[in-house]
Amino acid sequence: MSDLQPVLVAQDVRKSYGDFVAVNDVSLEIRRGEIFALLGPNGAGKTTFLRMALDILKPDSGTLTVFGMPPSTELKGRIGYLPEERGLYRKQKVTTVLDYFGQLKGLKPSEARARARDLLERLGLSAWSDKKIGELSKGMQQKVQVAGAIVGRPELLVLDEPFSGLDPVNTRLLEEVIEEERTRGATVVLCTHQISKVEQVCDRAVVLHRGRVVLYGAVEDLITTHSSEAYLVRTRARLEGLPGVETVVHEAAGENHGSAGMPLQRVTLARGASANAFLGALAATGETVESFSRDRLPLEEIFIRVVESSGESVRELIAEGRRADLVEQAKGA
Amino acid sequence: MSSRTWAIARREFLATVTRKGYLFTLVLMPAWIAFAFSFGSLPERLGSSRGENPLRWVGVVDSSGALGFAAGSIDTLTRATATAEDTRRDRRLRVYVARPYPSLDAAKQAFAKKDISGFLVVPVDYIASGRLTEYRRSSGLFSRIQAPPYRAWIRRRLAEGRLEPALVARVEEPGDPVTYVPDDKGAFKVFHPEDEVGSFLVPFGFAMLLFTTMFTSAGYLLQGLGEEKESRILESLLSSVTADELMRGKLIGLGGAGLLMGLTWGTIGLNVLLFAAPMFVPTPFTLLLLLLYFVGGYVLFGALALGLGSLVSSYQEATTISAILSFTAVIPMMLGLSFLGDQGATSPLARFLSLFPMTAPITMSMRLSQGSVPAWEIALSLVLLAIAGWYVLRLASRVFRVALLLYGKTWNLPEILRWARQA
Questions:
Q1: Are A56 and A79 in contact (CB under 8 A)?
Q2: CB under 8 Å to A308, separation ≥6 — which residues?
Q3: Start-end of H helices in chain A
Q4: Is the pTM of this model over 0.80?
Q5: Can you tell me the ipTM of this complex?
Q6: Span A183-227, pLDDT tens digits
Q7: CB A15 within 8 Å of CB A72
Q8: Would you call A332 and B409 a contact, using CB atoms and an 8 Å cutoff?
Q9: CB A214: neighbour CB atoms within 10 A?
Q10: Phi/psi at A186 (nearest 5 deg)?
Q11: What is residue B57's three-state secondary structure?
Q12: Nearest residue on chain B to A112, judged by CA atoms?
């Protein structure tokens, strides 16, 4: 999907508020045309990083370029942003607000009006275009906010928690809109706590913790790298004793059983054992094999394990995240 | 100026001038003033339209006998008598006719029966004590304006028969001097008594106009910013524009709304002056100076409002700041009486308030509309106002940039000064 040209490059970027280091020597790049996930608990430094990319804040050190240039006013027209802190003019009409956002992105008034009309149509809000924002439901306001982020046809679209407040139907609609934006040529940065969504729609991801990068790369690679050397096999064959097999765990009957009660077995191979050799031996047993797959860890689980490997419990992490979030918010991060 | 700044200015202007509160103020204020001015003469107008008799009967109980007001006689309180034409021309004109009563009780009975609208009691020892007692119906604050002219009548009654008629007339009415005052070139000109009211009201009118327009705009700036902070829309805006563009756009847009209000009220006021008191109509140059003081004052107070407004988290906190700012500017109006008038206008206090940027616009609007102010004072005052406006704008812009995304943060002066240095 992406053409590998970087749209955003951060090299050792650092930002502090007094003694509190919000972003700690972060290096990453976001490539043109990809959907990139920026993840981390509250207070990890995501918002500070985004604000630096949007030229709302300046980094203390390191280099940050967007479209090959340092963030500047001129670039703001090329970036669409849906902040986590939602806000609209509640006493103004939907079209008036979108016209205004379009004009701030450099569109002519007539162009902004036409674009706003198209977006409202796409998001199923045409009937509410003349209503005041305050009269809309939370979900509708959320969609207007999304429309405000993309009204200027941005080349880089940054969406912070875009799915919050949306029902499943509108979540699906928004996923389609994000995909359409990517198809149009936009690079999308997705900041979300819904990590399952990241696995579905994102090409690459970075996970920040305490302002530092703790995971970074293609989503598929992250999952593969951090998943165990275990395989899930749905078969009646007895797997113990097959070449390379170290342990076999039989999943409890019922929830994980496939068709006709086919049992699910988790097989861990010995270090250096070949999966191909194991699969060949399994086929030789003559038993039906309904499925064979790598035992993938969810990204969220990987994140938790990476953090816990540094000696922190998830509970501490969450508590710390909350504290840091408060500090960050207070410092204007 | 970027197109984004103009887009912000346009939105702020349109969002403000279409607010119900703004339209209400724009229309209601002149209507209220018109009502207040016409209200004073309303009873007379109503009385006149009903064909009310201008003749008023009053009683006199003269126990001293000093006035020689014999029973059965009547006397007008003023020597001159008004014609029907006079009373038609001046609806406030009353002709008071005095009737003697032998005792206080008799006068009270006549008063109760409404034969007389009031009465005067002259005690036995009047010549020695000078004490008099008056009874009347109205006790209102302004009822004295319509009180019978007893004093002049007593003077006449005391002098009549004791002095020559010409002297009696002068005792009754010694006359008012024609007053001369220096004009702009130092030559004397006649000062009309009605000028006194005008020279008080017109400067206050201009000061009020400037104050209201300046602070309506600054108030809307604070209100808008407070609402934007509360609704958390600022982050969306700052992803599209810089803090400086946002600040400039707001200042221009809301300044335009204030100017529209000022021009509307100013035009109405000038037309009223042209019709009612043409001598108080300011020259085009004075109007230009008033416009400059509006712009300078608005930039100064508007920038202060935005700088301070960016530090607060809600509209409520913003209104407190607005009240403090407007109190500073209103000081000249509170002290106004002391420097209106010939001596006061050139007093050290008037000069200080004219040169101090926070009070200069209101002070100068009062002094300019009252008469001539030395050119050097105007020039220096405008230069100081411009310098202060420029510095406050820069300072506010820096604080605005840093503080805009602060929510619920407590701050102190050293911190603000640090932001101003670092931003």
A1: no
A2: A314
A3: 46-53, 94-104, 109-122, 138-150, 168-184, 195-201, 219-226, 275-284, 299-308, 314-330
A4: no
A5: 0.75
A6: 999 999 998 877 777 888 889 999 888 888 988 999 888 887 777
A7: no
A8: yes
A9: 18
A10: -80, 150
A11: strand
A12: B7
Rounded distance between C-alpha atoms, residue B113 and residue B106, angstroms: 11
Give burial (CB, 10 Å; 0-12/13-18/19+) of A200.
Answer: exposed
> In terms of CA atoms, which chain B residue is nearest residue A86?
B232
* Beta strands at A230-235 and A289-294: parallel, antiparallel or unpaired: antiparallel
Helix (H) or strand (E) holding A264: strand A264-269
CA atoms within 13 A on the CB side of A167: 5
pLDDT at position B87: 65
Provide the β-strand partners of residue A30: A8
Q: Residues in chain B with pLDDT < 70? A: 33, 36-53, 79-93, 139-146, 184, 192-201, 279, 313-315, 318, 336-346, 370-372, 404-413, 415-423
Instruction: Pick left, alpha or beta for residue B139 (phi over 0 → left; psi -120 to 50 → alpha; otherwise beta).
Output: alpha
Helices assigned H by DSSP within A191-285: 195-201, 219-226, 275-284
Quick check: B239 and A87 CB within 8 A?
A: no
Sorted by sequence, the CB contacts under 8 Å of residue A273 that are 6+ apart come out as A243, A244, A245, A246
**Which residues are CB-contacts of A115 (< 8 A; sequence separation ≥ 6)?**
A98, A102, A107, A151, A152, A153
Tell me which residue of B355, B353, B357 sits closest to B339, measured CA to CA. Answer: B353
Q: Do the Cβ atoms of B409 and A103 come within 8 Å? A: no
Could you tell me if B349 and B339 are in contact, meaning their C-beta atoms sit under 8 angstroms apart?
yes
Of B204, B358, B206, B354, nearest to B283 (Cα)?
Answer: B206
The phi, psi pair for A248, rounded to 5°, reads -130, 130
Pairwise CA distance, residues A247 & B15, whole Å: 70
Distance CA A101, CA A98 (A): 5
Say how many residues make up chain B. Answer: 423
User: How far is CA B394 from each of CA B131, B247, B277, B389, rounded to the nearest angstrom?
Assistant: 69, 11, 43, 9
Q: What residues of chain A lie within 8 A of the CB of B15, using their CB?
A: 89, 92
Close Cβ partners of A27 (under 8 Å, ≥ 6 residues apart): A10, A11, A12, A13, A62, A213
Q: What is the pLDDT of residue A197?
A: 79
Residue B382 DSSP SS3: helix
CA-wise closest residue to A82 among A143, A170, A7: A143
- Partners of residue B163 on adjacent β-strands: B160
> From CA B224, how far away is CA B385, in angstroms rounded?
25
Rama region for B232: left / alpha / beta (φ>0; ψ in -120 to 50; rest): left
The winner for highest mean pLDDT among A259-273, A276-290, B324-338 is: A276-290
CA distance A207 to A197: 14
Signed CA dihedral, B283, B285, B289, B295: sign only? positive
Task: Write the residue in A76, A87, A152 that is nearest to B233 by C-beta.
Answer: A87
Residue A90 contacts B, CB cutoff 8 Å: yes
Torsion angles phi and psi, residue A217, rounded to 5:
150, -170
Q: Who's near A90: CB < 8 A, 6+ residues apart?
A: A132, A133, A134, B231
The C-alpha atoms of residue B200 and residue B369 are separated, in whole angstroms, by 10
Using CB atoms, which residue from A80, A145, A330 is nearest to B409? A330
**To 10 degrees, what angle do helices B315-339 and B348-355 make?**
150
Token pair 């009020």 is found at: B208
Measured CA to CA, the distance from residue B212 to residue B176 in angstroms comes to: 39
For residue B301, give the H/E element and its range: helix B284-309
Q: What is the mean pLDDT of chain A?
A: 83
Is the CB of residue B1 less than 8 Å from the CB of residue B253? no
Residues of A in contact with B406 (CB under 8 A): 330, 332
* Share above pLDDT 70 across residues of chain A, in percent, rounded to a whole number: 88
